[in-house]
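Forwarding the complex inputs:
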Amino acid sequence: MFDFLDKPLYAEYGGILGAFWVTIQLTFFSAIGSLIWGTVLAAMRVGPVPIMRWFATAYVNIVRNVPLTVIIVGSSVVLADQLLWTLGGSDTREISFRLAVLGFTLYTSCFVCESLRSGINTVPIGQAEAARALGLTFFQVLRIVVLPQAFRSVVAPLASVLIALTKNTTVTAAIAGIEAAALMAAMIERESDKVLLVFGIFAVGFVILTLPMGMFLGWVAKKVSVKR
Amino acid sequence: MSQQASVLYDAPGPRAKQRNAIYTVLFVAALALAAWWFISELDARNQLEAESWTPLLEAGVWTDFFIPGLLNTLQAAFLSILIALPIGALLGIARLSEHAWIRWPAAVWVEFFRATPVLILMLFSRELYRMAGVDSEILPLYAVVTGLVLYNGSVLAEVVRAGILSLPRGQSEAADALGMRRSQVMTSVLLPQAVTAMLPAIVSQLVVIVKDTAIGGAVVRFEEVIAQLRPLPTSDYRPSVIATLTAIAIIFIILNFILTAFANWLERWLRRRKKGTGAVVTTDMVEEQAPGVRLEDTEADVAGRKDDG
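Prediction (whole assembly, two chains):
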């Protein structure tokens, strides 16, 4: 039933497992990048400097309204084809991987920023005022009162962002044939007698990647949530 | 809110004001440097010449390419939400059923299609339609709408469920006390109120759907806005690729801004109005939905929702 998988075209992807491995790598590097850039954006957005707040707000509201497909296609046709950026990659495969990670990072960091900001906003202002009235310094207020509560309420939204990112990495198929969705696109056109099987394999692959992660992080979020 | 205290810091005093002024200057300098670097990068590849950008001002570019594309985007988006809404309502109610044999299959369906990427659903439905002999002209639209309906039906199922659960318990208790059957409680008490509470969430789901139609343009050759990136730069008008993509991005930004503003207005209106329970499934909750995560758990901000700029 599965011997069609041995075709040389599919071997370029390293088979189904190889293609999903690239999906995982894309998710991993984009998640790290989004966490960093999203945290910077969130810091600017809740900070005391008006121009930084203005910049972060504008960035989030603009970038999150652009379809991810436009950003990913843009990273390929604008950055790679027109501006000849390589981001240090040596072959096309490596270059498209890095450009995709850049695109996912720019897009996903909006949602990371929004999650972090809303986490900080869950802390009632009276708690910070009480802490300041007790004479705690800025960093003490952050460390003892605000951040412990903010981190707890941020687990569920960040988990959703991570899972959405995992599914979004399939958009890479629009610019390069390196990960699971592109392999599926190649397969489903050639194996017209096994359409259901091919779909089943890839759909179950993504269910395995996302559902346990969602259930586990959802459980953690419930466990650590602040009861008010 | 520049001079107000927030949960993180007090209203700035003289020293803090001075420090903020220094940060402002440094930040503007960094921003200007980044902008200058990118512009010179564009200039080095001759991307700033007028003839690459001015074709976008010609009427033909809009009447022959962007507007037909935009109409296709809107058509696919509205078809998807119209078909997905009843499916979502049925699935959402089924997940709240008292019978396990209804609840479980609905739960499996919802979790499966929330976990599967839309792009994969579109590829799959395109092959199914192709095998069923659907005309190749209409095939991409069918594939895009089917993919979006399968995914968003499940997303809306969770919105419906959260909408019903957001109503005060007293509503169903009162209906029970009146001797209504479960189906009556659902159809004449809970659902009408839940649908009202869900309206903002449904409109902001439209933003997600509009953005996802672009996937169809890139992978199943659906002739929506981003698909114009292929024919337009080689057409007689010859705008550059960068100019075309910029225009495409701006079209989406404007469209989604309008939808978001409408959703926010709906939300405010629902909260203000005297009739009803004031229960609202808010727009933030559906932006990113994940399988296995309960929608009501992801609502992080309750206290400070209204204070952002």
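The first helix of chain A runs from residue 8 to 11.
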